[in-house]
Amino acid sequence: MNIRPLIASDYPQVAAIYKKGLVTGIATFETEIPDWNSWNLKFLDTCRFVLEIDDKVIGWCALSSVSKRKVYHGVAEDTIYIDPEYQGKNLGKILLQYLINESEKKGFWTLQASIFSQNKSSISLHKSCGFREIGFREKIAKRDGKWHDNVLLERKF
């Protein structure tokens, strides 16, 4: 197992894992996989990682900005995906903990997550890594014509 920075050439594998998450209907409000350029603009340049097993990318994580205001430069939203074939093996926790540690080294003081209320495994993963539930957004957005709620979590250093 190896965790390393995500690079552009990883994107086909990252996109394939992301697509598997989209299919669940409870991982993201997105319904289409973006191209590399769009994905690259969405996430911060720092703290993008892939988790590999036998040189195969089986998970990825990244941070996105929550605000362009300078006072919030140390606050980011995390995104993490593990290939369903490898879920339930504690790999998500390893990758999320790595992201937390690296983000702290880069000066982030708060990570937050907004997770579909039905996505119990992701909520549990975040709580196991020190995130606490801070709120609930009822019917925050629609996906495929259906309203969904989000659970808000945060972790402070």
Description:
The protein is 29% helix and 36% strand. The chain has one domain: Gcn5-related N-acetyltransferase (GNAT) (Aminopeptidase), CATH 3.40.630. It is of the alpha+beta class and 157 residues long. The chain is built from four helices and seven strands, in the order βααβββαβαββ. It starts with a strand and ends with a strand.
Topology:
Blueprint: E1 2-5, H1 11-24, H2 36-42, E2 49-53, E3 56-65, E4 75-82, H3 91-105, E5 110-116, H4 120-128, E6 132-143, E7 146-156
Parallel strand pairs: 4-5
Antiparallel strand pairs: 1-2, 2-3, 3-4, 5-7, 6-7
Summarize the structure.
With 157 residues, the chain is α+β, with helices and mostly antiparallel strands. The protein is built from 4 helices and 7 strands; from the N terminus they run βααβββαβαββ.
